[in-house]
Design brief:
18% strand, 3 domains, 8 helices, 282 residues, Helix Hairpins, Alpha-Beta Plaits, 3-stranded antiparallel sheet, alpha+beta, SH3 type barrels
């Protein structure tokens, strides 16, 4: 608009009577006030509904915790989206126009953030297929720990050193996932090396007793011990034993400690790498 048209517009408004100016400004002001009120109401309703949904999910076992957090977020943003659409309609924007505008914006955003949308798609697949759940101990994308959150964009894992690692969902979905909790029990494979002059049968009996003294190890299936290798300086005995995943780490650490004590008490040597030098006279 050039300066001439702008001056005509100003002169036209100034030249109107007070009632005519009021008739122009009042509808606009009411629409602005109504729009702000709608946004405020939508914001309050979104908070109340999301809080109610969160409280309901916490007391119900209908939906898993992994999906609960995503549903709460969707409820909140869904209510806010409805409020924004109502405000636009209040100002005379038609629904078809809104949908066309949203389609164009979605296309532009999609081209700009393809990687982010890939994470969203991967997040949806993780929520649908559920290879991991909150609280499970997993290894994926080079990280291992307890799953604390599965979101639409990233998956959070707390490592054994209490470090929070946030991994893009695409990396989690495309990488192999080792879930150590899902099946309940885990098998320990420990290797105990003893000297060549040791009585292997005695060693196996000692190790079986160490396992039997700890109730964390399952008796069915029974522990399995066998000579797995005749090494350069030791006879290696492999020990297979099953324990519940919740006590597996403690049971494994206890076995190694008690096995060392029991073998020492029996006078059985656990050798270390060494070389024997033989000198012959010419």
């Amino acid at each position: 608009m050039d300066s001439f048209n702008l001056s005509l517009l100003i002169d036209g408004i100034v030249g109107q009577s007070d009632n005519q100016i009021l008739n122009i400004v009042l509808p606009i002001g009411l629409k602005v006030l109504g729009g702000l009120l709608l946004l405020l109401v939508g914001w309050v309703i979104s908070i109340r509904l999301s809080a109610w949904a969160n409280a309901f999910f916490e007391t119900s076992d209908l939906i898993e915790e992994t999906i609960e957090k995503v549903l709460v977020q969707l409820i909140r943003f869904g209510v806010l989206a409805v409020a924004v659409v109502l405000v636009l309609q209040l100002f005379g924007v038609q629904t078809a126009t809104i949908l066309a505008l949203l389609s164009g914006v979605a296309l532009a955003i999609g081209l700009a953030v393809q990687g982010t949308l890939s994470n969203v798609a991967a997040g949806v697949m993780l929520l649908v297929l559920r290879p991991i759940k909150i609280g499970e101990w997993v290894e994926t994308a080079g990280e291992g720990g307890s799953v604390s959150r599965v979101g639409l964009f990233r998956t959070d894992i707390v490592t054994i050193n209490n470090v929070l690692v946030s991994i893009p969902n695409t990396a989690v979905f495309q990488a192999p996932i080792h879930n150590y909790t899902r099946l309940g029990r885990r098998r320990m494979t420990a290797v105990v090396g003893v000297a060549y002059d040791s009585d292997v049968d005695q060693v196996c009996e000692i190790l079986r007793k160490v396992l039997a003294d700890n109730p964390a190890w399952d008796s069915d299936p029974a522990p399995y011990l066998y000579v797995s290798n005749l090494g350069d300086f030791s006879v290696d005995i492999s020990v297979w034993a099953w324990a519940d995943g919740s006590v597996y780490f403690d049971a494994q650490a206890n076995f190694k400690l008690e096995a060392k004590k029991a073998l020492d008490a029996a006078g059985i040597e656990i050798p270390f790498p060494h070389h024997v030098e033989i000198r012959r006279s010419v």
